[in-house]
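Subject line: Sequence and fold of a protein, written as structure tokens
Body of memo: The sequence and its backbone structure tokens, given next.
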Amino acid sequence: MPTWDEILHEIGSTINVLDQTRRKYVKELSTYTGRNTIIYYSAFLQKPQLSKKGVDFSINDNDKMGFMTVVNKLDRSKGLDLILHTPGGSVAATESIVSYLKMIFGDDIRAIVPQMAMSAGTMIACSCKSVVMGKQSSLGPIDPQFGIVSAHAIKEEFERIINEVKTDPSKIIVWREILQKYNPTLIGECEKAIKWSKEMVRGWLESNMLKHDKVKANKVVDFLSSHEDTYTHDRHLDFNTLSGLGLIIEKLEEDQVLQDKVLSVHHSTIISMSQTQATKIIENNMGKAYIQSV
């Protein structure tokens, strides 16, 4: 059965110089490491205005087909280096993608973050055996969101309302309009989403990166999921902060050749997204790609 990219080629797809350059650098990185390489890139920084027009830059269920396309025919014994650049997205889609990749490569998956892997991107990184980060790289909190609002923030606000009204019932007049924005089941959904994301990441950490070290796994999850500790969902966490929590972080600068090859992949992919209509690129070291465009 032909894959998505094979069918696309069959109906007349042509390879341009941007694709050729990007694929050259992805292949060079894979040759240097001796491992399979897959890039997962979103153009959320290059085309933010398209979000208002309904373009989805986040991790979603459509990405599963992309990973199915690029995993096909890879040598599973070589493990996987997964290069991530994403704002995050659906927890359900993230769980499904991680489960799929683990069925193919087991625990031999390493995350590489040249710039940013936020929210659900951080969750994917935590499912891997280690994370490669440079001085410029960032992961972020894993607190789930409802639209653009943190589930933790909604829960905290609701608890504040309860406490203030208990102390002074007249304050219900002030809070009434805010309470009207809540659906009857919203608080329960927030609590479930928080619990789900924490249990998922804790399980991945305990089975791979922090194998059998529940103390470290709990410390990582408690910090990454704490709205009180991280303050905002957009918080950028560097490798010093993350390694201090107990995550296994490989510093990109310690291998100059690896750094050059990773940044060549990153820069060529960012240029591809800046100069084309591509909104998301999932691609492997064999040149197989799943590209979403506007």
Observations:
- The chain has a mean pLDDT of 90.
- Residues 186-207 form the longest helix (22 residues).
